[in-house]
Structure formats: C-alpha cells, structure tokens
Amino acid sequence: MQSRFNLLVCDDWRDYELLDSGGGRKLERFGRLRFDRPDPQTLWTPQSPVESWRADAAFASKDDEDERGAWSFPGKPLPEQWPIAWEGLKLNARCAAFRHMGVFPEHSVHWRWAMAKIRGAGRPVRALNLFGYTGMMSLAAAQAGAEVVHLDASPKSIGQGRENQSLSGLDDKPIRWICDDAMKFVEREVRRGRQYEAIILDPPKFGRGPKNETWRFEADFPALLAAVRKLLSDQPLFVITTVYAVRLSYLSVAQALTTALDGLPGEIEHGEMAIRESGRGFVLPTGLYARWSAD
Q1: Cβ distance 202 to 290 under 8 Å?
Q2: How far, CA to CA in Å, does 222 sit from each of 42, 234, 243, 272?
Q3: pLDDT score for 68
C-alpha cells in the first residue's frame, strides 16, 4: 500500500473565515458574527493586537489544556443559533459548550474529497459516519448519493444533525441518525454481517457513550480500526479518520490505519489539517488525519 504526506488547508468557505490569529487566540467569522476563541497553537504574533479585536462573543478557558470555560458577550445578546452554508449545505452555528461552534470548518477538505469519491464510484455506496457530531459529513455524503448511517453518542448532536438535514433540504435523502456508543455499535454491525463501502471516524481524545461507556483514544482506537476493517465491503471505496488533542504524530495515525487495512490495495494519504488566515496567508494547524482510498 502506498503512503504519502499532504497538508490539507481549508480555504473554501464563504460563511467562515479565520480573520486573525496569534498570542494563543484566534478571531473567526461564522456568517456575519465574529468570535474570539483560545487556541494554544497560535504561538506567533497576530496581525493586530488581541486587545484590539472586535468580537461578538469571546470564550475564556480555565487553562490551555482545558476546553471548559465560559462565553462572554460584550455587545448585544446573540441568537441561540444562526444559519451558515457550505456548497449548498446549511447548518445552524451556535455558541456551544467547550468553545465549539456546531461545526469544525477544516473538515470541509474531507467533505469535498468524499463527495468526489462517492460521485465517481458509479455504484451504490453505503457510508458509516462514526462520532459524526452535527452531521455535515453525513449531509455531504448523502447529497453525493450515498446511503448514510450517522452515529454519535450525544442526543443533542443527533438532534442538531436532523435540523441541519432539513435546513439543507435533504429530508428525502437516506440518512439514519443513531445515538449509540461507537464501539458497541460497530461490534454489533460486525455480528450482523453489515458492510459499508465508506467509513468516516472522528474520535475524541476522551468521551462517554449514552450509557456512560468510556472511550479513551490511545486504548480504544486500534480496536476500533480493527472492527472498521471487518465492516468494509468487498468493494471498499475509502476510510477517513481525523484525530484531535492527542500527543501523537500523523505518522502514528497513518501507520495504525495501514496495519488495520493490511492486504488492501490503494493509497493512504496522511498529514495535518489547517485553516488559512485570510489576511497574511498563515495557516493554523487544527488536527491530524489519515485517509485511505482504493484508487
């Protein structure tokens, strides 16, 4: 199996923009609103002093290693949610807990890639989206023609995913929204003999299932990949995995995926995801990825 490095830079949004970054912070635009959020990777000097940034909301963390904290709103109160769009897909952005915004914009590099693979397959594609959050990958895959199973352990995220499906005008597309623990669900799918042509997984560093099941990345990721291999059909199309907030190299992720998919032809692309700053062109690294495709 061939392997190559690539830096995937997100720069294909109209409703999202990284305006400035540095000094441990980042200034972003989601739709018409601006947000000041912490990011410990921004070790450089920002274009404008952080103190001069004008944001509609700011998030303060307890420390650089802790996503817990609180939002503050220096001006008028913001709506609970507001619509933004990417390539015809719509979602509701929001000031969510743990400094999140209801979407990870850098994942658009994978949405576009997956859509091209599905459209180019020329055959039915069943896609499984694990740790699917609020569903943008599921919507992209369904819009491209796949039959999708979307899984997340958070009932709130599942509800938001359904809202985004309706907002995008995709209620007629085949998406099953399932709230479950990823490992338990995958193990059941293996026992049932279910198979998929495309599998996407975005596991957290630590998480809990709906019945308080525990997920720890370093302990559980290899077993999950082994199960994913069993779920691939005899005509697999691709596997995408993204990783955040772990002290690992992208090489570790790529080589774990390589060994899990041993015996399959094709190529594994691996590296970092990043977002391009709109002013001076700096890129902000956001996470690691590895993705395999059959061609």
Answers
A1: no
A2: 30, 21, 13, 20
A3: 74
Which residues 6+ apart lie within 8 Å of 280 measured at CB?
A: 47
pLDDT value of position 75: 87
* For the chain, domain boundaries: 2-8+104-293, 13-87
The tokens describing 224, both together, are: 């999950």
| CA distances, 250 to each of 62, 76, 237 (Å) | 28, 42, 22
Q: What is the CATH number of domain 2-8+104-293?
A: 3.40.50.150
- Give, in words, the CATH class of 13-87: mainly beta
**Which residue positions in the chain have pLDDT lower than 50?**
none
For the stretch 236-249, what's the b/e string if a residue is b when 16 or more beta carbons lie within 10 angstroms of its beta carbon?
bbbbbbbbeebeee
What count of other Cβ atoms lies within 10 Å of the Cβ of residue 288? 21
